[in-house]
Amino acid sequence: MLRRTSQRGAILEALRGTHRHPTAAELHCVVRRRLPRISLGTVYRNLEVLARAGLVQRLGAAGAEMRFDARVEPHNHVRCVRCGRMCDLELVEQPVELSAARRTTGFEILSASLEFRGLCPECGRSRASVGRDPAASLKMMQSISTRRKSR
Ligand SMILES: [Zn+2]
Ligand SMILES: [Zn+2]
């Protein structure tokens, strides 16, 4: 059973109080207002425990920073390829054919969710430099290596 520490409770509460799908670092900023001494590492570790317990969903993508969601049932997302911002995406119809997925892979499909990628409204305004901005890709690589070190 999951032991409910005050730190873990504060992290879960902070995540449930936002729809922004924050990174561990963003969540750390919020939780620190209540628990000034909590470290980023503690936030990471507790998020892992919460994810294993099924209370939190991890939203990872290759090359993107891990984000967290307190909404754990399968749902769709749209992710900004530039700033990483994520929003829930409600679709009237799930455009995935579950029977076709089962037929072609032999998997018993239990759930499905989609991630759409694009540019958020802010990033869309400066779309001309997407993919051609060496400073942006350098920044991204730095954030990846920082993340590896902090593990
Ligand atoms: Zn963006
Ligand atoms: Zn979500």
How does this structure look, described?
- The protein is an alpha+beta fold and 151 residues long.
- The chain has one domain: Arc Repressor Mutant, subunit A (Orthogonal Bundle), CATH 1.10.10.
- The chain has six helices and five strands.
- The protein has helices spanning 6-16, 24-34, 40-52, 98-105, 121-125, 134-149; strands at 57-59, 67-69, 76-80, 86-89, 115-118.
- Strand 1 and strand 2 (67-69) form a beta hairpin.
- Helix 1 crosses helix 3 and helix 2 packs across helix 3 (40-52).
- The longest helix is centred in the last third of the chain and has 16 residues, at 134-149.
- Bound molecules: zinc ion (2 copies).
- One zinc ion is lined by residues 80, 82-83, 85, 119-120, 122-123.
What is the structure about, briefly put?
The chain is α+β, with helices and mostly antiparallel strands and 151 residues long. The chain has six helices and five strands. 42% of the residues lie in helices and 13% in strands.
Shape assignment: globular
Topology, number of strands:
5
Number of domains: 1
What is the CATH architecture term? Orthogonal Bundle
* pLDDT averaged over residues: 83
- CATH class placement: Mainly Alpha
Helix and strand composition category: alpha+beta
* Element string (H = helix, E = strand): HHHEEEEHEHH
CATH fold type: Arc Repressor Mutant, subunit A
What Rg, in angstroms, do the CA atoms define? Answer: 17 Å
CATH superfamily: Winged helix-like DNA-binding domain superfamily/Winged helix DNA-binding domain
Roughly how much helix do the residues carry, as a percent range?
40-55%
